[in-house]
Amino acid sequence: MLSSRPINRIAMALIFALTPTALTIGQESPPLDSDASFARMMMLIASGDDEATDSGSGDEADEAKADVRDGSASEDRSAGAQNDTPEFTPIEIFDPQVTQATTLTIADVVASLYRHYPKVMEARQEPAVARGELVAAYGAYDTKLQGYSLNEAMGFYENYRHGIGVVRQSWWGTYLSAGYRIGRGSFQPWYKERETNRGGEFKLGLGQPLLRGFAIDPQRVAVFQASIETFAAEPKILQALLNASRDAANSYWEWVTAGAILQAQQELLTLAETRGEQFKILVEAGKFAEIDLILNEQLIAERRGKVLESQRKFQASAFKLALYLRNDLGNPLIPPAQWVPRQFPAVTAPPQESFNDQLSAALARRPEPQLYQYQIRQVELDRRLACNDRLPRLDLIGEISQDMGEAATSSRDKGDFQLVIGVEGEVPLQRRKALGKIQSTTAKIRQLTEKLRLQRDQIATEIQIARNALELSSRVVDQAEVSLEAAIESLDRYSFAFERGKVDLIYLNLLETKANETEIKLIEAQRDWFDALADYQVALGLDPLDQAMNVAALPPSDLPKAGRTLLHEQQPDDVIDPEEFESDWKKHTAPAE
């Protein structure tokens, strides 16, 4: 069984074979003249032999040593070439000095969302709004102070009337009043009730609905509906938290993914840049054709373009994440690149319960069904009021009064205690207002009932979709891991073949690109799994902060680290046996029978 080894073994051989001055000069050099000569040169350097097997290679090696001794001109040329190269500064994602404890976790983001996210803060004002509306609804039962002062100072009848009193409506619709009034002067004969004795008049009044307005009235409906709003405030907060936490989780995992992809692209670029340095050294030594160096420089430029594109996406994801990650003042906090976790948490399947049990628990936790139920109760109150409005208005009224002081007139008709009691009523013959209100509220209740049924079906569908996505996403992660391991193994073998001139740079580039794409697929597969986990938790209506802390407590994944896949460290058992490789390569290149 052939095993893998990294391409960096070439650089180690060059370091032992060439002087430090030669390495400095070799930073601007053209590529090999052929794959075969490159293979011979690599074998010569690796074995430590100073004499080449053919005369051409030996002469070229002597010329290279002469160039090493006279390195000042080459250094000037190298400096000039470096000045012509566009400046490229990659973003450092995984700083060795940054420990795992200082990385940003999903729990940090959700905790910041709980404290400072504007939509959550807006939803947390709902209880105060509802309580204020409830207080306002109770304002219909406030005791009111009333008064008047009416003066007819000109005309045949000159009189003055003043009064003050309090009125209040009780919970059952009773209307109570108490007051004092005084009327002095000359009054029209048809307005003699306005006149009082010298000391004025004290009066108590009462009005009690007997039919319409007795069991329920608009004031009580307003209080009941405002009370329901206070209960609906908590589900509104939970709804805002669930929606915001799902968006925050998606933004966080997108940021982690973008950072890992950026590191993978930088890794691919590092391969080309390292190989380019090796090519320059050998071209300076006259052992490499310039065409391969030009091709490698093209690969470097292309891969730098991909790195820049990945940087753009990574920075954009950081800006988006800052909407949910905020400082103590509540301002958006753009996370630095060093906060990106080195690895995703381990993909751990949550405990599976029966679908019916999960659905029942989700329906009890999710805020949407509760909000619809509260709306139905509010409309039912309007319907009860409309049914009560069909009844005729029949009110019991009563009034007692007593004049005080000396008689105002010679008839002395104001001094006795007076009692007035009776009923008054009213009924609209068509009763269209009440009947129309009943019809509309009944239809609204049916609408809300259908919306509630649809919402329950949607919750069931969301749970099914999330369960399915979570299960299949974990399988995709497993397959992506297998694919990446195979891609790295293939790349290592073909890199070994490239060192021996059996494949060209173009084919090696294809394999490197394929391995890089496979690594990115594994990164995206892990992101999809955690996105599915966030959807699953929201579908079940679980507390976002508790779930985020559970995810943050998961151990790091044992999958290959992002940005450390292609540049993996060589293990003792990973050295490829040349004899086994040659035998296997002959089988690989043999024509099919």
TrEMBL record:
Keyword Ribosomal protein: no
SUPFAM superfamilies in the cross-refs: Outer membrane efflux proteins (OEP)
Cell compartments where the protein resides: Cell outer membrane
Skewed-composition ranges (Basic and acidic residues): 63-78
InterPro entries named in the record: TolC-like
Region (Disordered): 49-88, 560-593
Residues in the signal sequence: 1-24
Gene3D superfamilies per record: Outer membrane efflux proteins (OEP) (1.20.1600.10)
GO-annotated molecular function: efflux transmembrane transporter activity; porin activity
Coiled-coil portions: 431-458
Keywords: Cell outer membrane, Coiled coil, Membrane, Signal, Transmembrane, Transmembrane beta strand
Biased composition (Acidic residues): 49-62, 572-582
GO cellular component: cell outer membrane; efflux pump complex
Protein name: Outer membrane efflux protein
